[in-house]
Amino acid sequence: MVYLPTWLRYAANRLEYSLNLSWQSYSVGQINSKQFSHAIWKNFLYGKLTFCHWNKGEEMTPTLAGNDGTLLVRKIPFPHPTQVFVGDVVMMKNPLKNDDYFFRRLAAIGGDEMVSSNEKEEPFTLDKDQCWVLADNESLKAKEAQDSRLFGPVPMGYIAGRVIYALRSAVDHGPVYNSQMAMAQDASVLAVELDVEELVKKMKS
Fold first, then answer.
1. Alpha-carbon Rg of the chain, whole angstroms?
2. Four-residue CA torsion sign, 93, 158, 140, 85
3. Is the pLDDT of residue 66 over 70?
4. Are 78 and 22 in contact (CB under 8 A)?
5. Which of 19, 74, 180, 202 shows the greatest Cβ crowding within 10 Å of its Cβ?
6. What is the DSSP letter of 71?
7. What angle do CA 68, 71, 73 make, to 5 degrees?
8. What is the rounded distance in angstroms from the CA atom of residue 7 to the CA atom of residue 46?
9. From CA 6, how far away is CA 38, in angstroms rounded?
């Protein structure tokens, strides 16, 4: 059972998402000012804040299953420091293959200073629209992990969502450990939109 305070927090999340999505459509000229308010209500009333996806590869184990797990991803139309945080597992465009998406953990965002373990490399500061992402699988080398140690900073705009729930098997599943801020924001979304049976049905064999 989902209680009223949770529904209210969920409604606030939906409204924020609707405003962001409608503004995005307006800013690129897809809708005009007269259509803006209609788009807000349409986005608020219909659709979900999450979608299902599947992980490929071992780069994010043990957090995410290799090629078998189903993931619940929260949509993030405008990734910025009030929506995604250091420590979050994010779904993003692959900088090495832009028609593909992958999952990595957000390790730093714009304004953070990056200091290499290699003393020959100079420290640098990430631009405000950049982020640094890492694989969770510590047994992999940089080239195998395919993260920022290989391709460097990536645009924040590459982020499409945050993984909030991972199903590794029908009996092994649970919330993904993200930053405390993210988990607080996502709690109501999980309470309302999580359907484990549906995730199991969509699980790849």
1. 18
2. negative
3. yes
4. no
5. 74
6. E
7. 155
8. 16
9. 26
